Amino acid sequence: MTESSNILERVYSVIESRKGEDPTSSYTARLLSQGTPEIARKVGEEAVETITAALAQENKYVVAESADLLFHLLVLWSERGITPEEVWAELIRREGTSGVEEKAARPRD
């Protein structure tokens, strides 16, 4: 296994360890203290920055913005009590299924 193969789980563990820490000394603790609305806004902001980089910049900027997006997504999962394993299980469940079929099978609200 390479060092990068479980980086998301390691970052998630660090995020989890920041829960309840002083928001003035940790960016992650500050984000977590602000709750879902602010964290979700940051995920959206980073998604837009990733899209912008993909459309107009070099790959190194797409890489950097993608890392920011993944980090903020992990913070959102942590705040909501979602583990990476739950997301991996959902991806595994969808593996081998046509995207068109999977989307059609989703319940309609």
Helix content: over 70%
Measured by DSSP, the beta-strand proportion falls in under 5%
List the quaternary state of the chains: single chain
Q: Label the overall shape.
A: globular
Distance between the termini: 41 Å
Estimated structural class = mainly alpha
Tell me the Rg in angstroms: 16 Å
Number of helices: 5
What's the helix-strand series?
HHHHH
Largest sheet composition: none
Chain-averaged pLDDT? 93
| Beta-strand segment tally | 0
Sequence stretches where pLDDT stays below 50 over 5 or more residues: none
Top keywords for this entry?
109 residues, mainly alpha, 5 helices, 75% helix, 0% strand
Tell me about this structure.
With 109 residues, the chain is mainly alpha-helical. Helices cover 75% and strands 0% of the residues. The protein contains five helices and no strands. α2 runs antiparallel to α3. The chain is globular, with a radius of gyration of 16 Å. 14% of the residues are buried. The model has no long low-confidence stretch (mean pLDDT 93).
Question: Which SSEs are present, and which pair or pack?
Answer:
Elements: H1 7-18, H2 27-56, H3 59-80, H4 84-94, H5 99-105
Helix pairs in contact: 1-3, 2-3
